[in-house]
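seq as requested:
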Amino acid sequence: MTTTRRTTGLALALAATTALALTGCDAAKDAAGNAISSATAAVASAAQEKMNEVKDGVNAGGDVKAGATGTDGDRTVAEITATNPKDQSADYTILVNFRDDEGNLLDAVVVAINGVEPGASKSGTARSNRTLTGATKADIAQALRH
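struct tokens:
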């Protein structure tokens, strides 16, 4: 009877410890996810502030395209191309979002492509601020011609 109680007590203690450990891991995972989410939101906010600094810019979303993503070292990159349909040289400031397959925002950067001649195209590189994992896609959140 004493052996059964010890075995049962040991099993209950082990189950409780495992439950606490798993709960702790989930809490740590949630905290890490929240920290990354907060950092991503801060970067996106800073990128938007940079866009807001552009004076006399006009919406040029139709002039700009994002290419496929790749890697350069530990960063995700995408070629961004601006095509100037106007009759004078223009500069472009572009807010690029990096997203995962589910559409979640992973990072945001601002790219400047200056001196795009009339009727011509010019490219620049969007480079993530940090290492991104998994499949990513670059999309144009905002583009200004000025």
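The CA atoms of residues 32 and 38 lie 10 Å apart.
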